[in-house]
């Protein structure tokens, strides 16, 4: 609720400024015509951000409200013609959402194990730069194996605090053209990571870099001596990498 209240005040203030400098003309009677589309946009963004952070949210409802609110605002500023009743014209989005249901999406302990370029001893998920979708590994007691994951666009979420990690060095490679990578690692598990982004941000246990063509390497103090350890290679064209202790 506080987001809605804040949005109302922010929008009202911006509209009054625009009126005072002659960019927009309106009175308090039609201010609501600008406020409620802005609320739609804010709610849409919030739901999408919550989904990225794995705090609930929804891509479907978030993106729909964001698109709907944006179109209404563009109408208010005479960029396009779009009224509230035209919401039915957005029905093709249902086809888009339905299509994404069939695109590569994995949940749980789905791994690709590669040796000499061939897949062995693993389930039959195969990453590809032609796929789009989210990859989530957060099922209780999922078994960690060597993984080589890639896709065109999408997010990766790996929660190693819920996993069974064998006593060995386990290489994990993730690459995507656009997306976010979020990894949770227990404090008693040694790891090293090499991360690179062409445009975006890298944050590894509180150490961060951001901008263009960024690379970051990190290794825990006892990595070389440990028998159970994770070797992470994360490569993104655009997006963010975040590795946290839990």
TrEMBL record:
- Which segments constitute the Cell wall-active antibiotics response LiaF-like C-terminal domain? 132-243
Q: Which domain of life is it from?
A: Bacteria
Query: Which keywords annotate this record?
Result: Membrane, Transmembrane, Transmembrane helix
LiaF transmembrane domain mapped to chain residues: 5-107
Q: Which InterPro entries match?
A: Cell_wall_LiaF, LiaF-like_C, LiaF_C, LiaF_TM
Q: Which residues form a coiled coil?
A: none
Q: Does the keyword section mention Transmembrane helix?
A: yes
TM ranges are 31-49, 56-74, 80-100
Q: Which Pfam families does the record associate with it? A: LiaF-like_C, LiaF-TM
In terms of NCBIfam families, this protein maps to: LiaF_C_term (NF040535)
* Name assigned to this protein: Cell wall-active antibiotics response protein LiaF
Query: What is the species listed in this Swiss-Prot or TrEMBL entry?
Result: Ornithinibacillus salinisoli
Q: What's the name of its gene?
A: liaF
């Amino acid at each position: 609720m506080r987001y809605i209240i804040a949005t109302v005040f922010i929008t009202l203030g911006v509209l009054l400024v625009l009126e005072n400098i002659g960019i927009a003309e309106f009175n308090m009677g039609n201010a609501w015509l600008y406020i409620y589309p802005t609320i739609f946009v804010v709610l849409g963004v919030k739901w999408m951000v919550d989904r990225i952070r794995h705090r609930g949210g929804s891509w479907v409802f978030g993106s729909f409200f964001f698109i709907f609110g944006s179109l209404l605002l563009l109408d208010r500023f005479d960029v396009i013609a779009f009224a509230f009743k035209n919401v039915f014209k957005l029905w093709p989005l249902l086809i888009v959402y339905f299509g994404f249901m069939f695109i590569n999406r994995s949940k749980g302990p789905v791994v690709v194990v590669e040796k000499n370029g061939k897949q062995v001893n693993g389930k039959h998920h195969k990453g590809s730069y032609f796929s789009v979708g989210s990859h989530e590994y957060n099922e209780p007691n999922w078994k960690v194996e060597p993984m080589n994951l890639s896709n065109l666009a999408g997010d990766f979420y790996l929660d190693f605090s819920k996993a069974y990690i064998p006593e060995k060095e386990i290489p994990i490679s993730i690459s995507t053209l656009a997306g976010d990578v979020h990894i949770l690692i227990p404090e008693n598990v040694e790891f090293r990571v090499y991360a690179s982004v062409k445009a975006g941000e890298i944050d590894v246990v509180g150490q961060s870099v951001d901008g263009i063509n960024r690379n970051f390497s990190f290794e825990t103090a006892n990595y070389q001596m440990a028998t159970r350890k994770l070797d992470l290679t994360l490569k993104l064209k655009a997006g963010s990498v975040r590795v946290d202790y839990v």
